[in-house]
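ligand=iron/sulfur cluster
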Amino acid sequence: MITQTVPGQLTVLPGIACEADSTETVPLTEERSFGFWQQDIPQQYLALEPREIIERIRIARQKLGERLIVLGHHYQREDIIQFADFKGDSFKLAQWAVEHEESEFIVFCGVHFMAEAADILSAPHQRVVLPNMAAGCSMADMADPEDVYAAWDELEEAGVAKDTMPITYMNSAASLKAFVGERGGAVCTSSNAPKVLKWAFERKKRVLFFPDQHLGRNTGIKMGVSLDEMPLWNYRLPFGSLGGTTQEDLERSRVLLWQGHCSVHQRFTVDQINEARERGAQVVVHPECRAEVVEAADSDGSTEFIVRSVSESPPGSIWGIGTEINLVSRLAKENPDKTVFCLDPVVCPCSTMYRVHPAYLSWVIEALADGEVVNQIKVPDDDKRWAKVALDRMLEII
Ligand code: 13P
Ligand code: SF4
């Protein structure tokens, strides 16, 4: 197995419990949980100087012209986002894929589940490329499809599945989007979770929400669901344990929460919010943060909401932000008339987003310019059909 060290930019303080590691070793030929193989990046790309990379990307893009579009999620590093034709949160990028049929190649600078959504929603002639196949999402990996199928079987045996609407967060494998689509459910993102839950409650008594317990709980609280109506399903327990709940818990439940989380957002604390307030800041956080953090903040919302909140605020505003550091640093740079800082003084980027390195971007774009498609994201047709149903339902819920 070939391994390589991805050159880092951000300094991650050593010795902290942080998912990110700017010098982590990424196996290039390891089979990922989403079932495909990483194609090896030619070694020459790893030796390129930043200036050379920029120039090579520029030349290859010129050659491809309008055949290529580059999409960038807000958490992408600055040296990637500079190449994005369009940036957004996961919802906006999915919408973009539906509305734009013109480009032949969509290079998606984000993580695997986002590129899968683009492949599902884009036109058949469009091809989606993820620069580094190892750019997954640790939260999405907490909902292994086999565990979800087993949980659903248990809910059926317990007699509660018929009153339960499965809702998956966008941060999940395409096969799980297909699973919910086939069972009448929908996808949601952090920007529309309350609308999707309202839609679900109009149809069923309860929701099975996965993989992020925090987004599920925070959304339930906003909709007036009490905490004792939101039991936690521990997917690590053996089959037959009802995920650590009881029959009574299940029957009473309105939102059954999968025990997944985002390690980046779980780091934020109420103490950090109090410290930010002492600096005169208003606080906005992502709803993947714990419930007490969301409750203590002034507002919460998707990455796009956070971008809008800061950019539309008056000059002189002070913002403490609870989300990924690449976005916070960009907001600070783009809003020099405001004070913008991350709530967490110990920088912790999303390590998987960080795997999209400029060397990978230049590799996949140059390959396209040479007529070769590398790292194409291709959701199998069976999954595509039902996953599209679940995504279309989300896009129709307004
Ligand atoms: P958004 O939907 O807000 O872009 O968030 C995606 C994500 O992965 C946050 O951790
Ligand atoms: Fe996944 Fe968290 Fe990274 Fe978002 S920030 S892509 S939820 S690991």
